[in-house]
Design brief:
The chain has 172 residues and is an alpha/beta fold. It contains 6 helices and 9 strands. It has one domain: Fructose Permease (3-Layer(aba) Sandwich). The strands form 2 sheets. The chain has a 7-stranded mixed sheet with strand order 3-2-4-1-5-8-9, with helices on both faces. Strand 6 and strand 7 form a beta hairpin. 34% of the residues are buried.
């Protein structure tokens, strides 16, 4: 099924860049740009080079951004190329604080994968979040940013109407 999704999609995935991103989104959507927002990778020359080469091999332009610079950079790209299909992958929900300024136009936030760790609960399938992260995402949802569970762009999106930490999984 072809996707009708357009714009800038933010994707929470702590696996960073992998086959599903490169070929499902990069080729299948197709994403004109793929950006990885990750402080650790952005500050490690070797890792950064590896991820940038993977993105280039998918046929998309893009690269690795430090969270502190990502919001400004993505906003500028949206002004320069407003019709580009842009996938922005982030592994830490805290990095959304720098990505969600008033200028940034977000089509949706896709919850894809986040590893189970102490202090996190499963919110939706394969996505474990802490209390502060749920609060941040709920704040964005309250501002009108759609939050969905979607693996691939052609998949039927599952809206996450309200994220909750108390009982485990959020309401869908």
């Amino acid at each position: 099924m072809a996707s009708t999704l357009n714009g800038t999609v933010l994707r929470l995935d702590d696996r960073r860049i992998h086959g599903q991103i490169l070929y499902g989104w990069g080729v299948g959507w197709p994403a004109d740009e793929i950006w990885l927002v990750d402080r650790t990778v952005a500050n490690d020359t070797r890792e950064r080079t590896i991820y940038e080469e993977l993105i280039a091999e998918s046929g998309s332009v893009g690269g690795v951004l430090d969270p502190a610079d990502a919001g400004t950079r993505i906003s500028a790209l949206q002004r320069e190329l407003p019709r580009a299909q842009r996938l922005v992958v982030f592994s830490d929900p805290a990095d959304l604080k720098d990505l969600t300024g008033d200028e940034l136009q977000i089509a949706e936030i896709d919850l894809a994968h986040r590893t189970e760790k102490q202090g996190r609960r499963e919110i939706v399938a394969r996505v474990y979040l802490g209390e502060d992260e749920v609060e941040l995402l709920n704040g964005l949802r309250a501002k009108g940013v759609p939050i969905l569970r979607r693996d691939l762009p052609g998949d039927e999106p599952v809206p996450v109407d309200r994220l909750t930490i108390e009982g485990g999984k959020g309401e869908q």
